[in-house]
Write a structure and sequence with these properties.
single chain, mainly alpha, 2 domains, about 0% strand
Length: about 325
């Protein structure tokens, strides 16, 4: 295990360096000018050139990248062009909202995946189940998000269609409103946060549920045909005990791998869902950074997303090895 963790941490550093270099090099081919964005559209050319020199944008890309890496090693991701705040401060401000939304979406997605796998196993020849799974999996994320907003907010008025919290001036110790409402003794805050998070979390959870559910259903179908399952049934174990003790654990490898893959897709979907639901998280922050040619913010959020993705996949590989000892680390 120590050797595995050391190898994975080294891989994390290499991947983040490569990713940051690729994103950094993209600034030389995009037409946007961060110096012009800082100075404003009506600023004279001399002011823009002075800002460009102050930021080091007139130097070669490799020199700029080396200076960036030196700052990152000290925990400095630079200053946002749009907010004029340190990128690390912006990330601390917006990360809890995206983290909370991602956790709830993943929990709903896994729960729905288990339900889909159960339906596939119970009604293997029911075409309606397969058609519903295919339709849900093929719908674009922005389309399903807009449908949720239209029906549950605009038409029915059951749930809020935008924002993160309807209660103003609330600040909790963790930044996770669902948890902070309980920690501060204000359950109405948690209930309000829950009503706001259901729709965006459900929009994110649908593709996760379809992908993981199909993977789990296929793996369970194969596992339940194995000889040790028939032996367990012959020894008098009930169907539930056979399913949970022998079937689910041996079928967990493929769904775990699919969950790790879905995390990367979740980051991309966050940009769309947070924009549709006006969710104040890193996805919306990154979209606004793209629009403002805010390279420090884009680089900072990319590094955070990349690190989270690699760490989640390390956790997935450990979980796979615990569920199936035949999978070595």
């Amino acid at each position: 295990m120590p050797f595995y963790l050391a190898k994975r941490i080294a891989g994390l550093v290499i991947v983040l360096l490569a990713m940051s270099f690729i994103v950094f090099c993209l600034q030389s081919v995009i037409p946007a000018d961060p110096a012009r964005a800082i100075a404003g559209p009506s600023a004279p050319v001399s002011t823009v050139e002075a800002i460009r020199q102050r930021l080091g944008l007139d130097q070669p890309v490799l020199a700029q990248y080396g200076r960036f890496i030196a700052r990152v090693a000290q925990g400095d991701l630079g200053t946002s062009v749009r907010t004029r705040q340190p990128v690390t401060a912006d990330i601390r401000k917006y990360l809890p909202a995206s983290f909370e939304l991602g956790l709830v979406a993943m929990a709903i997605g896994v729960a729905l995946a288990c339900l889909l796998a159960l339906l596939q196993g119970t009604f293997p020849r029911l075409g309606l189940v397969r058609l519903g799974i295919l339709a849900a999996g093929s719908a674009p994320i922005f389309f399903s998000a807009m449908l949720l907003v239209y029906f549950f907010w605009f038409r029915l008025g059951w749930l809020p269609g935008a924002g993160r919290l309807g209660i103003r001036n609330f600040s909790g110790p963790t930044g996770l409103n669902l948890v902070d409402g309980l920690l501060t003794g204000r359950p109405e805050v948690s209930l309000d946060a829950l009503s706001h998070i259901i729709l965006p979390a459900l929009a994110l959870a649908v593709p996760i549920a379809v992908a993981v559910g199909r993977s789990l259903g296929g793996a369970m179908h194969e596992v339940m045909q194995q000889g040790y399952i028939r032996t367990a049934r012959g020894n008098g174990l009930g169907e539930t005990a056979v399913l949970l003790r022998h079937g689910l654990r041996n079928a967990a490898g493929a769904p775990f791998a699919m969950i790790g893959l879905q995390v990367s897709l979740l980051f991309g979907n966050l940009l769309i869902v947070e924009r549709v639901f006006a969710w104040p998280g890193l996805g919306l922050y990154m979209l606004q950074a793209f629009a403002s040619a805010d390279l420090p913010a884009v680089l900072g959020v990319s590094l955070i997303f990349g690190a989270i993705y690699i760490l989640v996949n390390i956790g997935v590989e450990i979980a796979q090895s615990l569920a199936d000892p035949r999978i070595g680390l």
